[in-house]
Amino acid sequence: MAAITLIEALTLAMASEMRRDPSVVVLGEDVGVNGGVFRATSGLIQEFGAGRVLDTPLDETTIAGLTVGLAAQGMKPIAEAQFDGFMYPMVDHVICHAARLRHRTRGRMSCPMVLRVPWGGGIRAPEHHSEANEAIFTNVPGLRVVMPSSPQRAYGLLLAAIRDPDPVIFFEPKRIYRQYKEEVVDDGEALPLDVCFVLRDGSDVTLVTWGSQVKEALEAADALAKDGISAEVIDVATVKPLDFDTIHESVKKTGRCVIVHEAPRTAGFGAEIAAQLAEKAMYDLVAPVERVTGYDTHIPLFRLEMKYLPSVDKIVAAAKRTLAAS
């Protein structure tokens, strides 16, 4: 067992699964010789060779098409989008083919591919490098959308994503790639998909979030505890399909919910969670649902970037508003 960063946990998971399953291949821009733009694939080409770790042209459309083709023919490709804003040329293949293959063939074929996507802001990157676009893909039938929030969950969830028989969009919050270390056992044990993780028990308010905002939610829970407020923290982890039951059980206990996400507010995935709470948990709530989100703008460059992102102070203020309203 070693204490490693989230990016190192991803490398560990890919190497583990490539040793276990010879049908697993990695492809993308600079993933081989350079080890990826964030070094997530560092060392893989040295161990597995250029036949299984493929450096592609700088052409996201080709990467996506090649990935779908490999998956349709029995391989398990892991493609890297390099940055979240580079996904858009891939959308045609991902939505029109990867997500529909099982449905189109009435179950005779599937598309067991993983698209790894460095996601989100907070690293002072230019335009197209700091987007939080997960909600776009949650609206597509046939796709799983997964986002880890720690080294341990990155390792276990990526293993599960690779083994999934259907396409998985695996968003990786790059702000926390190297933010802290955690002990990870390289035992090949996958974590379950399609379930939320309750990271902290509480009785007064439920904080629901995913990805890099999990750290802020936990810190907000610590800050609230100093004021005698008990906050339960839920890491959604698999954004689509959503494990609403875990969220509902928490809200039954606390009566209040704050949803936190980095993406723009309008039609962000938090709105879907709020809608389900309105439909299924209205009589369990004692205060209106609060959302702490990004703004309906492109993420501002550099000086205002951290002002755009949800913060501990914003989450604490939203939690206290739910308490004042009831």
UniProtKB/TrEMBL annotation:
Its cofactor is thiamine diphosphate. Coiled coil: none annotated. Keywords: Oxidoreductase, Thiamine pyrophosphate. InterPro entries: THDP-binding, Transketo_C/PFOR_II, Transketolase-like_Pyr-bd, Transketolase_C. Pfam families: Transket_pyr, Transketolase_C. It comes from the Bacteria. Gene3D superfamilies: 3.40.50.920, 3.40.50.970. This is 2-oxoisovalerate dehydrogenase subunit beta. The gene is pdhB.
